[in-house]
Design goal:
Length: about 160
């Protein structure tokens, strides 16, 4: 039996030993970074139901019908490739229950670079960690190479209050 492919989340593990258990509902991601990695893998592997299931109840897409959300993602998925994920920085859970992860997602659409850097917020909903919100920026709009960013330098590059 051939080995399973590496996990798209770039953990260095095989998919079956990494994000597959989350995608299949056998386990919940143990922390915000693991959830973020598993969501990147879900985009790469078109695990669209998982992307819906791991949205926090406060996320705006949760007010839409699930079928509309999944249909839109399916339409986009056929042209997107996800070759690499770089986790840049993370903040453990704060007093409000929010964890933050800064990452650089390499994404290509029909050969065009659609990569982005995102500061994502996650909250636990009593069952598992969920994606609550994110602030994304194109790498070319940032004053430094994406790989050198931290949460502090990303915040400083966006100006006051994310402007």
């Amino acid at each position: 039996m051939p080995p399973t492919p590496p996990c798209p989340c770039t953990s260095g593990l095989r998919y079956t030993a990494c994000c597959a258990r989350y995608h299949r509902g056998a386990a919940e991601a143990p922390d915000a970074e693991a959830l973020m990695r598993s969501r990147y893998s879900a985009f790469a592997l078109r695990e669209l139901d998982y992307l819906w299931r791991t949205l926090h109840p406060d996320h705006p897409d949760r007010s839409r019908p699930r079928e509309d959300f999944v249909r839109e993602l399916r339409a986009q998925a056929s042209t997107l490739k996800y070759p690499r994920l770089h986790v840049l920085d993370r903040q453990l859970t704060d007093p409000s229950g929010t964890s933050v992860v800064l990452f650089y997602a390499r994404v290509f659409e029909s050969g065009k670079d659609r990569s982005f850097v995102e500061r994502s917020e996650f909250r636990h909903d009593g069952t598992g960690w969920r994606y609550r919100s994110g602030e994304a920026r194109a790498p070319q709009s940032l004053p430094t190479p994406p790989e050198s960013l931290t949460l502090a330098t990303f915040a400083a590059s966006t100006g006051p209050a994310g402007e």
